[in-house]
């Protein structure tokens, strides 16, 4: 009857629009699929990285800070946890600083606690601080201030140094990684490797 014919004509008109639209949608999805797959892969990578970072009670667990110094050489600071005090200060637990000086070596510093001032790129380490250098130098001190932007480490506390040269005890130090400068404040004691088997009176003193 006329009512059925009218419904059929309506369905046919809709089909004429729906089928080409579906074909275009399918074609578009085929073209866009590589990009969608790339986004899915990137999201999976981000999720894997986020799985290593957890926020618990305002603390960031597994914190990592990366940057470049004045010589455009990278540095990295990691910590077991970081607590943000304000927009500049971060209190760190078990921080580790990895610095690459201009000379091509590296310096690594670790301690029990630390404070990182993000705007000034200053890292204050306290509690059983140990510094390692690629030339075999190892330093132990209760505290040290590091300007990671300029590659300078300094302390007014006692320091014990061991390395290929021997041993050195001093009352403070300054290291400039980019300039290759190491200064120590006395009174101090220097034991050269060749003198390790000599009597204590033969030990050399450094001022």
In total, the number of strands is 15
Between the first and last Cα atoms, what is the distance in angstroms?
115 Å
Radius of gyration: 31 Å
Q: Count the DSSP helices.
A: 1
Query: Multimeric state of these chains?
Result: single chain
CATH architecture annotation name of the largest domain: Sandwich
- Unreliable segments (pLDDT under 50, ≥5 consecutive)? 196-207
Helix content: 10-25%
The CATH superfamily of the largest domain is Lipopolysaccharide (LPS) transport protein A like domain
Structural class: alpha+beta
Strand content: 35-45%
CATH topology of the largest domain: lipopolysaccharide transport protein A fold
Number of structural domains: 2
Briefly, what CATH class of the largest domain? Answer: Mainly Beta
- How would a crystallographer describe the biggest sheet? 6 strands, antiparallel, barrel
Instruction: Spell the H/E element sequence.
Output: HEEEEEEEEEEEEEEE
Characterization of the model:
- It contains 1 helix and 15 strands.
- It has 207 residues and is α+β, with helices and mostly antiparallel strands.
- Strand 8 and strand 9 form a beta hairpin.
- The termini are far apart.
Q: How do the helices and strands line up, and which of them pair or pack?
A:
Layout: H1 2-51, E1 54-56, E2 59-68, E3 74-84, E4 89-93, E5 96-99, E6 107-110, E7 113-117, E8 122-133, E9 138-147, E10 152-155, E11 159-163, E12 166-170, E13 172-176, E14 181-185, E15 189-192
Antiparallel strand pairs: 1-2, 2-3, 3-4, 3-5, 4-7, 5-6, 6-8, 7-8, 8-9, 9-10, 9-11, 10-13, 11-12, 12-15, 13-14
